[in-house]
Amino acid sequence: GAGVSQSPSNKVTEKGKDVELRCDPISGHTALYWYRQRLGQGLEFLIYFQGNSAPDKSGLPSDRFSAERTGESVSTLTIQRTQQEDSAVYLCASSLGAGVAEKLFFGSGTQLSVL
Amino acid sequence: QKEVEQNSGPLSVPEGAIASLNCTYSDRGSQSFFWYRQYSGKSPELIMSIYSNGDKEDGRFTAQLNKASQYVSLLIRDSQPSDSATYLCAVNDGYALNFGKGTSLLVTP
User: Fold this and answer.
1) What residues form DSSP beta bridges with B62?
2) How far apart are CA A16 and CA A22, in angstroms?
């Protein structure tokens, strides 16, 4: 596609419910990243996928968070038993490769509100 | 903990002036440096990348890198009100990017 696509753009959920966020990277981009941005804060790295390699999960804040990606296509970020502190914008980015010089291109994000 | 530090601002400059945004980082092994612009309520947009010491110019934007001093800066010449946004400095941490909290820039007409 022309850009990184994320859905839904907004999600309101009740505390304790599970949510699933979707990211469709730019066609041909092999690397995919999830970041979280709380209101007024910087971007917090969550997880990184590169092709069929094992993902780098070092940024996931707790075991309630998980993500999957099949090959070089769509990724889903799942948050189980949501808490109010999970409220944030969840940003997905993709890059052409996995080198240290790669430029990340971001989607428009999913605004998650946990009531 | 690898840090990327930015002054949160706001930095206010008059229209037509030069805006200077600074960033320091803690990891001496970092190799790639980026500046992103983020308008309120929008996602980050890549403006500049720089990998070698010195200056890199692109239109009204100049990125400067000094690896010995571990700082990277962004100069915006002839600042416009449309440049008002938060500017995020990002430094590679392995294959991911580590972002600063951003500097808010306000360009006043």
Assistant:
1) B57, B75
2) 20
Beta bridge partners of B89: B35
Q: For residue A109, how far is the Cα from the chain centroid?
A: 8
Instruction: Please enumerate in sequence order all residues whose Cβ is within 8 A of that of A46, keeping only pairs 6 or more positions apart, or say none.
Output: A33, A34, A35, A36, A59, A60, A61, A65, A67, A77, A90
Structure tokens at B1: 């903990």
Does A59 sit within 8 Å of B98, measured CB to CB? no
* DSSP assigned state of A15: T
Q: Rounded CA gap, B109 and B97, in Å? A: 34
CA distance A81 to A88: 15
Closest Cβ–Cβ partner in B43, B51, B94 for A101: B51
* pLDDT exceeds 90 at position A100: no
Residue A43 identity: L
Residues A24-43: pLDDT tens digits?
999 989 999 999 999 888 89
Question: How far is A46 from A41, CA to CA, in rounded Å?
Answer: 15
Say yes or no for a CB contact (<8 Å) between B96 and A45: yes
Q: Whole-angstrom Cα distance, residue B91 to residue B100?
A: 8
